[in-house]
Amino acid sequence: MKNGKIGVTTENIFPVIKKFLYSEHEIFLRELVSNAVDATQKMKTFSSIGEAKGELGDLAVRIAVDKEARTLTVTDRGVGMTAEEVDRYINQIAFSGAEEFMAKYQNQSIIGHFGLGFYSAFMVADKVEIFTRSFREGAKAVHWSCTGTPEFEMEELDETRDRGTSVVLHLSEEAAEYADEQKVGDLLRKYCRFLPVEIVFGKVKEWKDGKYVDTDKDNVVNDVAPLWTRMPSEITEEQYKEFYRALYPVGEDPLFSIHLNIDYPFHLTGILYFPKINLEYESLEGTIKLYN
Question: 75, 93, 175, 185: which could form a disulfide with 166 (CB 3.0–4.6 Å)?
């Protein structure tokens, strides 16, 4: 068992995080899922260059809620962390593992660039736990926990765990809504709709005997290959319209669309839709959607 203090520049950092880190507290879910996707993308990179041995297996990021226990859990099968890495990336606030990784392995798709993202969990949680094991041979599992103060507990575990990381949020009473399936499902569709790794939230449901019941099929909430990532020659006009309707379900079909693929002076791919305007002064402000 290791006890210590998280490396921060002020004893009052946690009240600041809880109130002012993001204007919307729901952003915590986007940050945690992005971290899990980063860890998974790193795992793919290490495997492609021979630093990780064996089969990658299932790489989906899985979200689970328990309304009675008031918990929300984000689990990945990415690179995981050793005790030393937990010390560096979790206990030293604002030290971003993504930044270090990008410096070493350029041209890889990594979302996170700010070490504070993980700590957004404390905007909604009274306690946060991490269970993790590095993919590296011989690595031990690690358990870390913190109750929203600069004090933390960390210990190596003798138990056998799969590689990757689970972040368990023990939600505060005020944030109990984030243990609700409908609420979390809506947030995942809002913030994680086009992430490059499958995001699984429970099982697909079907109507049976007068009620919805879970099937054996994973409920994947995102599209890992959105339309703008494909070649225009592979896409039909009807597919462009279907994609538009999915993003803007209220309203008419667009007049036309332009598929963008820009390489210089910056890289940009996307689809630009031109909607119909029925009234001379009709405003369509706030309808631009950007995804990374």
Answer: 75
Q: Residues 48-77: pLDDT tens digits? A: 999 988 899 999 999 999 999 999 999 999
Last residue of a domain, one of 177, 206, 235: 206
**Alpha-carbon distances of 56 from 45, 134, 211, rounded to whole Å:** 11, 13, 37
CA distance 156 to 143: 6
**212 belongs to a structural domain:** no
pLDDT tens-digit readout, 113-154: 435 678 889 999 999 999 999 999 999 999 999 998 888 999
Clarify whether residues 134 and 201 are in a common domain: yes
The CATH number of the domain holding residue 189 is 3.30.565.10
Q: Which amino acid is at 147?
A: T
Count up the domains in the chain and report the number: 2
Please give the model's pTM, rounded to 2 decimal places: 0.82
| CB neighbours of residue 108 within 10 Å | 15
Whether the CB-CB separation of 99 and 92 falls below 8 Å is answered with no
- Rounded to whole angstroms, the Cα distance separating 48 from 220 reads 25
Structure tokens at 66: 């328990």
